């Protein structure tokens, strides 16, 4: 299905930076609407709210590389630091042909909210390169990653801004980023990125952490609405790192994965898909299309399937006005960043679907990234049980705080998560004051 990037309607009260086109605000417009919704709950801290409506720093870089055929290709790269009031910037790097400045700005802002919502001591940042990495050879990808890292090297660093994997980037790319940064500063700086291979300062459990967090939060939310996970029907969009691991954990807990959809197609099985086989198929072929253990379905079939829990774990802007009305799930757990537009949020709310927002649901990745960064600084590494135990503890605690806030103010979990997070960020700003 198309990677829809709706142009959201934004209150005229917003003063937009000149580098954004007001008619094509994309995900940044959605983020601004989310901030509008939380502002009435910020009390005296509302005087600082404009701080959240513009990124602290946005760097656009040209990334030239020599292709294997000897020609020179140029790619557009970004690194945006949205807010650093609570600590260094933190957020992934995405390689995708549709990456835009507006998208990276929104993703960086969602990182500020997420890091504050789970109370890890970071601000929010994000990066990306406008490239389809599948069109590059291994060596070209390495050159692209290294040149990009070198270009953004002036603003990243273990105590400044710490990148991590996101869509189409992985531990190998983090290894190249760490090496490039280290070569430039003249010493090995493991703490400059997280999501690294375990053999070079990575953390056990990091690869699985986002999916594990999605599953943990889903279990907590399911308890609140009296939905047993065992036997629950689950539909997952995106079967990559986040969707694949979450799907595996749901299946291991006795849930039925009844439908899966990704960029290659969709597959459904009323009796439950065999998740380990489907994961093998995806690893071999690059997507779920052609999997023999179920019947092929369209994207429209996927959104309308009969299920209890739906997990969008692909890209932003997937649950829209067009498909939200068809969703039959009792709960929607946002594995992806920004998968639900504000209009879709309202439709789901009116239908009584519990939406567990991205800023809590997928925060497991950054939580274990935080553990990785702490382990790198102390050069002392924990075992996987310790990591998973701490992860589950933080996720449950964060979900509880958001659930209580939602009850207290009678608002959605998204607005509640924003109340918790924006209060923390703006309180830090208030305490620090404005320089000079
Ligand atoms: N990896 C992490 O630790 C992490 C942490 C927090 C949030 N996220 C978010 O989770 C989402 C998925 O990230 P990931 O790391 O699993 O990426 P990934 O590259 O491993 O997987 C992406 C998945 O999305 C699918 N997809 C891509 N375009 C699609 C389309 N147009 N329609 C349907 N499916 C499509 C792909 O087929 C693939 O299954 C992203 O929004 C990312 O920002 C990831």
TrEMBL record:
Residue span(s) of domain Glutamate/phenylalanine/leucine/valine/L-tryptophan dehydrogenase C-terminal: 203-433
CDD domains xrefs: NAD_bind_1_Glu_DH (cd01076)
Keyword Oxidoreductase listed: yes
Keywords from the named record: Oxidoreductase
Pfam families: ELFV_dehydrog (PF00208), ELFV_dehydrog_N (PF02812)
Annotated PROSITE patterns: GLFV_DEHYDROGENASE (PS00074)
GO MF: oxidoreductase activity
Matches recorded under InterPro entries: Aminoacid_DH-like_N_sf (IPR046346), Glu/Leu/Phe/Val/Trp_DH (IPR006095), Glu/Leu/Phe/Val/Trp_DH_C (IPR006096), Glu/Leu/Phe/Val/Trp_DH_dimer (IPR006097), Glu/Leu/Phe/Val_DH_AS (IPR033524), Glu_DH (IPR014362), NAD(P)-bd_dom_sf (IPR036291), NAD_bind_Glu_DH (IPR033922)
Gene3D superfamilies: 1.10.8.1210, Leucine Dehydrogenase, chain A, domain 1, NAD(P)-binding Rossmann-like Domain
SMART domains per the UniProt record, alphabetical: ELFV_dehydrog (SM00839)
Family: Belongs to the Glu/Leu/Phe/Val dehydrogenases family.
Name of the featured protein: Glutamate dehydrogenase
Lineage of source species: Bacteria, Pseudomonadati, Pseudomonadota, Betaproteobacteria, Burkholderiales
């Amino acid at each position: 299905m198309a990677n829809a990037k709706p142009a959201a309607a934004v209150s005229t009260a917003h003063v937009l930076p000149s580098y954004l086109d007001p008619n094509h605000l994309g995900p940044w417009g959605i983020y601004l609407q989310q901030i509008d919704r939380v502002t009435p709950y910020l009390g005296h801290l509302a005087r600082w709210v404009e701080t959240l409506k513009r990124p602290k720093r946005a760097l656009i870089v040209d990334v030239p590389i020599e292709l294997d055929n000897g020609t020179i290709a140029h790619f557009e790269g970004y690194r945006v630091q949205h807010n650093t009031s609570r600590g260094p910037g933190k957020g992934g790097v995405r390689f995708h042909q549709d990456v835009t400045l507006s998208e990276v700005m929104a993703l960086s802002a969602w990182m500020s909210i997420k890091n504050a919502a789970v109370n890890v001591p970071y601000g929010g940042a994000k990066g990306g390169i406008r490239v389809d990495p599948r069109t590059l050879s291994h060596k070209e990808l390495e050159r692209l990653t290294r040149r990009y890292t070198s270009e953004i090297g002036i603003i990243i660093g273990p105590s400044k801004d710490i990148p991590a994997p996101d869509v189409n980037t992985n531990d190998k790319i983090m290894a190249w980023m760490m090496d490039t940064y280290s070569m430039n500063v003249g010493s090995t700086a493991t703490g400059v990125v997280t999501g690294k291979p375990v053999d070079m300062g990575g953390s056990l459990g990091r690869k699985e952490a986002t999916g594990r967090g999605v599953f943990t939060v889903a279990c907590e939310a399911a308890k609140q609405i009296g939905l047993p996970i065992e036997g629950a029907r689950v539909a997952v969009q995106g079967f990559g790192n986040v969707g694949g691991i979450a799907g595996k954990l749901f299946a291991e807990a006795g849930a039925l994965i009844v439908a899966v959809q990704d960029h290659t197609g969709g597959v459904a099985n009323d009796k439950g898909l065999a998740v380990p086989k489907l994961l093998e198929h995806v690893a071999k072929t690059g997507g779920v299309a052609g999997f023999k253990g179920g019947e092929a379905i369209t994207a429209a079939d996927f959104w309308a399937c009969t299920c209890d829990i739906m997990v969008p774990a692909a890209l932003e802007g997937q649950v829209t006005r067009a498909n939200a009305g068809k969703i039959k799930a009792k709960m929607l757990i946002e594995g992806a960043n920004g998968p639900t537009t504000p209009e879709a949020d309202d439709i789901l709310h009116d239908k009584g679907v519990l939406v567990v927002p991205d800023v809590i649901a997928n925060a497991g990745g950054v939580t274990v990234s935080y553990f990785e960064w702490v382990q790198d600084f102390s050069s002392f590494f924990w075992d996987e049980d310790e990591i998973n135990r701490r992860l589950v503890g933080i996720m449950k605690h964060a979900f509880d705080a958001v659930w209580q806030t939602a009850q207290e103010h009678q608002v959605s979990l998204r607005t509640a998560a924003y109340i918790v997070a924006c209060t923390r960020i703006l309180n830090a700003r208030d305490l620090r004051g404005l320089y000079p």
